[in-house]
Specification:
Distance between the termini: 49 Å
Number of strands: 0
Number of helices: 8
Oligomer: single chain
Radius of gyration: 18 Å
Shape: globular
Largest sheet: none
Number of domains: 1
Order of helices and strands: HHHHHHHH
């Protein structure tokens, strides 16, 4: 990955990935938001990202919050159908059940605590929307969760990059690893679904 691309468009790319993790449910198939945020902070701390730290944090908090609102809206649209959906390319029933159990235990706090847990943070907005939680409390708890989650991980990466600036030479490999994980997982999921389709057709015959 070209270093100039990281320097000029890195922040926008990271923000997009943070948004689609919950907004388009990418986090259900490729958990890895923590690695991405640590890498963002590391790039900022080592000087390989031309975006001030404060701007970067605000940008990523906004992207995470927008993703949660999109997931909440999707949950509103799906409503009870969320519990009747069959396993598909992205959606898995077991993820819903895991998230619901966490949601029942922690109630509204799950929107804060769940931010730090893969899969849970992706399903929480869906459950809040389908469960008819009011937008105001959802926005409050989601906002708090986004601020704590983004700030803590980006700052941790920033101080790591400031302390060990030579780590910036490995940043491109982090991005390549994340991109490869997304592509490989999507292809594998597609291949799994293609294999299951003939079996399901045979069993229904």
């Amino acid at each position: 990955m070209d270093q100039n691309l990281i320097e000029t468009g890195g922040a926008a790319l990271i923000a997009l990935l943070v948004f689609i993790e919950t907004g388009f449910l990418l986090g259900l198939i490729v958990p890895g938001g923590e690695t991405l945020l640590l890498a963002a902070g590391l790039m900022s701390g080592s000087g390989s990202l031309n975006t001030p730290l404060a701007v970067l944090i605000v940008l990523l908090i906004g992207a995470a919050f927008a993703g949660d609102l999109t997931g909440y809206w999707l949950g509103k649209k799906l409503g009870g159908r969320l519990h009747r959906m069959h396993d598909g390319f992205i959606y898995k029933r077991k993820y819903l059940e895991q998230s619901e159990e966490f949601y029942r235990k922690h109630k509204k706090r799950s929107l804060i605590l769940g931010r730090f847990l893969p899969v849970i943070r992706t399903f929480n907005p869906l459950l809040s929307g389908s469960g008819n939680m009011n937008l105001a409390p959802f926005s409050l708890y989601s906002g708090i969760g986004c601020v704590l989650y983004i700030s803590s991980l980006v700052l941790a990466g920033y101080f790591l990059g400031s302390t060990f600036p030579h780590l910036q030479q490995y940043v491109k490999y982090v991005f390549l690893g994340v991109a490869a994980a997304v592509i490989v997982t999507l292809v594998f999921k597609w291949w799994q679904d293609r294999r299951k389709a003939p079996r399901q057709g045979t069993s229904n015959a």
